[in-house]
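Aim 2, interim progress. The first record below pairs a target sequence with its structure tokens.
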Amino acid sequence: MGPMTSYAQKQLRQKGFSALSLRIIDEFAELKRERKDGAMEVFMSKKKKMQAIREFKRAIQELSKTQGASLIIRDGLVITALKNNN
């Protein structure tokens, strides 16, 4: 999610959107329409919500496999992956 106006920040707080909610909307929402002023309106449909739920369920299952895992990274490039089973 990119930078926000102070008005948008205020509106999001008032409506109870968390940072995680915004990340989910940013990742899964679809373009509803392009406005005349050039702005875009994105919308979280039921279909996209269900897609997000499926992906999060898979992510939760995968999470257990990450315990003890390490990545060796240099200059933004993953060199190798390690797994400590302890």
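The second target in this work package is listed in the same format:
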Amino acid sequence: MYKTCFKAGFMRIFALLINFKLIMMFEKIGNNAGSVWSALSEGELEIKALKKATKLTEKDLNLALGWLAREEKIAFREVEKEVYISLA
């Protein structure tokens, strides 16, 4: 009986921690998307220049771009294997 109660309590705490971590991750992605938006408000940028302007890691930049792309806030175009991004 005690093991069952302990396990159930542990699982609830574990679920809360997972939810908290997800919320914090979404908040970080949203903040990074704001940084990308601000950088693009100056005009179209090549992806390397955008990374340099925002000072984000490649992973964080890609997550922010995915967030903005899902909301149809940015546009992509490719010229000679270089990717350019602008506000939609």
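The longest strand covers residues 74-79. This observation will shape the mutagenesis plan for the next reporting period.
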